[in-house]
Amino acid sequence: xxxxxxxxxxxxxxxxxxxxxxxxxxxxxxxxxxxxxxxxxxxxxxxxxxxxxxxxxxxxxxxxxxxxxxxxxxxxxxxxxxxxxxxxxxxxxxxxxxxxxxxxxxxxxxxxxxxxxxxxxxxxxxxxxxxxxxxxxxxxxxxxxxxxxxxxxxxxxxxxxxxxxxxxxxxxxxxxxxxxxxxxxxxxxxxxxxxxxxxxxxxxxxxxxxxxxxxxxxxxxxxxxxxxxxxxxxxxxxxxxxxxxxxxxxxxxxxxxxxxxxxxxxxxxxxxxxxxxxxxxxxxxxxxxxxxxxxxxxxxxxxxxxxxxxxxxxxxxxxxxxxxxxxxxxxxxxxxxxxxxxxxxxxxxxxxxxxxxxxxxxxxxxxxxxxxxxxxxxxxxxxxxxxxxxxxxxxxxxxxxxxxxxxxxxxxxxxxxxxxxxxxxxxxxxxxxxxxxxxxxxxxxxxxxxxxxxxxxxxxxxxxxxxxxxxxxxxxxxxxxxxxxxxxxxxxxxxxxxxxxxxxxxxxxxxxxxxxxxxxxxxxxxxxxxxxxxxxxxxxxxxxxxxxxxxxxxxxxxxxxxxxxxxxxxxxxx
Length: 574
Ligand code: ATP
Ligand code: MG
Description:
single chain; BirA Bifunctional Protein, domain 2; YbaK protein; 3 domains; 31 strands; binds adenosine-5'-triphosphate
């Protein structure tokens, strides 16, 4: 490709709307342009990167026996009504009607459609396992589309669905996909980690991992063990109760006046006690049903754990102030567990019942109770692990203090079990002619998000540093001065030879100053750059520069093609 002909509009300025570096660089380097919030056009270089990631994904899916299909983006509402998800999916789903007022959605995911296909086509155990996948646009009306390709409303996903005879078969399919995902992200040249993730309250037969590309800008927080392979999304990471040593009070609990002290910090300071002596009492509203939730004052409540523990509400949120007033007779900052109404369920993290003398809200304005003893002075109806894990806590596997990292979720593997096969009646006949439900798994890779994640992990002040495996082109040739016939001729010859050697090369044949060409080459992030200049050429040499290290070396003209070819070949080997 010739840069003079390439639609590659680079920008010097950082576009104001782009917050994260991948978004900024994809706009600046001319990879994408915005069509609407969270909806983008891929320009030629952007599309090449995308196709390379897709191809890696496709090869690894095929290697595991996956068969590629292509399902429609537009999906009939009936199927979604059959599984009950038409109502559950909420505002994230793009919905539309045809001229006959039949309802459709733009597919946010394809469990319904694939299960419908399989229930129609699979009869016998002999047809299983079946691994079907596609690479296609998905549509989700995200509440906050942002960060460019990272969280789009239209984005590209690879989704594979596995159909097995039983749980053992599912475990095999799951392991295959787990392995394939490791290979995919390694082949993309990325530093990643599979982490245990939250399966949700209705997560089928359980078991799910997210694949995280580690980067500061990641939206997800993960904890990992530096000594063993334990790693988990903080949403999921199990916490062990860690009691604080404290003496139980000798007498009854007492009411104290705490004017103006509402938050944990304010109360702890006012009474001069550590936060570990306080209990956070939160009134929650799950689809209209109220619960009182207790965690120790220094801990953060994990709402995902709470929702799972309570059975999975569609909407779980802190109760509105007027509901708090109705139920507890006070404002939010004064809620506590002593003397709560009979019917109100009290749910606590196990650390609460291990506390000795507690400070908590007294359910009246500007007052708290002190020396409250769990069990003696208030009831706990159910205990669940409800808190957020903290850095430095012991690894649940080996006891080493955990560390924290930020990650971008680029993929997820998920055991669905029979959730969808049951709802849609996808069955097969086993060896004995008995009808059984297919056992399913689903496995997604965010192809376009992976492209963004690769940039988040690989960039510097000058631009993108593509891992060679997914770079739009491997190498750029920059003739320094096109008016010099020998320079221009050599550059053209190299361009032709590299092409013949299987190296993806571009030649910057624009009539621009060398500085401009170098800047653009760095911004776009070509892994290798060959500079052809008259001075080195006089010695029969050209300059070869590696974008990643910034190292340059002078290489004999006669050898440069073979050297570049070898470098590329080695990087692509897997
Ligand atoms: P998230 O928690 O980030 O919203 P998700 O759990 O809803 O993602 P999945 O349904 O598991 O996503 O989709 C599979 C993969 O698709 C994700 O791992 C992610 O890489 C990608 N993905 C999901 N939502 C988006 C989006 N809005 N834009 C780009 N990629 C996305
Ligand atoms: Mg996910």
